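check this:
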Amino acid sequence: MALQESRAAGIGEPISLHPVVDPLRCCGSGSCVKACPEGAFGIIDGKAHLVNPSVCIGHGACVASCPFEAIKLVFGTEKRGVDIPLVKPNFETNIPGLFIAGELGGMGLVRKAAEQGRQAMNAIRDTLKGNGGTDVDVLIVGAGPAGIAAGLGAIQHKLSYRIVEQEDSLGGTVYHYPRNKIIMTAPVQLPIVGKVKMSEISKEALLEFWNGIVGKTGLTISFRERMESIQPNGKGFQIKTSGGEYSARAVLLAIGRRGTPRKLDVPGEDLPKVVYRLIDAEQYRGQKVLVVGGGDSALEAALAIADEPGTEVSLSYRSDAFGRVKVKNRQRLEDAQKQGRINVLLKSNVLRIEPGEVLLELESGHTTLPNDAVIISAGGVLPIDLLKKVGIQFETKHGTE
């Protein structure tokens, strides 16, 4: 039933790193079903299947739980390829001095991403000789597990560094997980800190752990600073960010595959009340909120906020129907709409955002909504095109490791 619902909703294709089951090895034990906290697995005709691909985040708990090694993690599918950058065993790309570690390189697992960050910084140390005459020895882009581990490695190796992170908090992809989400990981080996034992841990506890590491080690991170371009300059690289320009002898890209949030490019989008994700629905109690987008994340944000006391929620989407969403989300939205808890505005576009209101364009004309907050959930712009312009080579995976 879950698999049929996913296919009917047009979300039968997994997003990134995901498991595939070898039916000849699978005995239908159900260990993967029990091990997956996302509920992505089910048993069909005595064999394990990925029945809810859209919720799979590729943490690999299913692989570890299978007693017959019938599951492996792969990228892409026969229908949808995934571009993965080509890197050497030391995580260096085809461009000397430019390294990639973590989710962008295909590794979203917390422990392995951190390990890649540590090893990549070891490799960078080995390639840097003498004084390069740049602002920093290494510029690290991203403050998830790979970026944090790499930063600790830079401190350990006495390299000058700068970490830039486009979000306002560390954690990388983990930062975007829902509240109290249980994350599967394993003991992590970190420079300076040593071995840290972890198994099942909530999102909040993991972020608290990373913040504690930063506080104890003095790791410096520049938040709300987005990478915009990278250019070789003879001594290394010239990097332009939203906060300035820097020269570095080496660059480590430890960024996720979520990309930069897609913006509407309308007047007023830079107001403080505009955000690109829902972190905590409680903060919107008693407020008039506009959610923009037509995917599951937009629907789930609108529904969560509508559950808070005193909220008035509107959902704006440019198309005439919510096509690629889970059946349960569509049903919940229809119920909320009938109950008058969410005002759904299909075939609508935001024209202007002002401190106390939002102007929208509808089929019938323009309308103005009183507004306290706007959440834009329109997906992300992946950094792949930017990296290809630099000259980084990619390969397209179609269901392969």
